[in-house]
Design goal:
The chain has a 6-stranded mixed β-sheet, sandwiched between helices. A 5-stranded mixed β-sheet has the order 5-6-3-4-7, with helices on one face. It is 27% helix and 29% strand. With 286 residues, it is α/β, with parallel strands linked by helices. It is built from 8 helices and 13 strands.
Length: 286
Amino acid sequence: MSRLIRRGKVLKVDLSDAQRPVRQREDTIAAEEPLEIRLGEQPFSVTMRTPGDDFDLVAGFLLSEAVIGSADELVSLRFCAGEDESGRQTFNVVQAQLRPDVPLPDLQRHVYTTSSCGICGTASIDAVRKSSRYVPQAPELFDPHLLAELPERLRAGQALFTRTGGVHAAGLFTAAGELLCLREDVGRHNAVDKVLGWALREGMLPLSGTILQVSGRASFELVQKAAMAGVPVLSAVSAPSSLAVVLAEEAGVCLIGFSRNQRFNIYAGSERVALTALSARLAGIS
């Protein structure tokens, strides 16, 4: 946990306290550090992230960027050069070795992403419409009651958020509601990459019949990441963007937004949710 957080002095302002409206105290702050990703010896990307689960992050990022599509295309991951002023290893450079027959992407593009943006290094919307090897599928319809419970189940596992209040989370659930993997990061797209990278390294792709629950909003790049891994349902506690809805419709991803307090909106792929029985029951009550 030590690399995930920092301690710092802050001024707490409480205007309801007439005696001491301003106090100085220590606070816990979520860490953010750069991570350089290399393909072999060549620099490929730099992203700002919360340290931890870095190999999962790199694997998920390479999946999202359509560099790889399966675990066997990724030969190895290792930390390499990266030292601070005192010469200590920073663990902020990861080298990914691809299988020899895997074609390299354009290494001149130098993708740079911040912790709030997953596609800042891409020049146009057309360029980020990656073609996935997997078609999102589910053997059965998803239970709306279960979908409504997932934000609380995700929140219950957010240990770092509890300490800092400053990180996003992504959780991969089965159709029965079992939590398979939860990751936290200052960047919502990093949290998703960490989850999908874990699944790739575990040999679980495509992620048919699963639900990806995220703590923030549903942006274009998150829908794209879900589609690249074959995830049939992406659910967010906040709003989707218009491009996220368009891509979800094109990719066959069920997109849910404003999932909180036992309520949610379905923006695309409503046919994946078991609404018929629910609607009939509610009609009978009314």
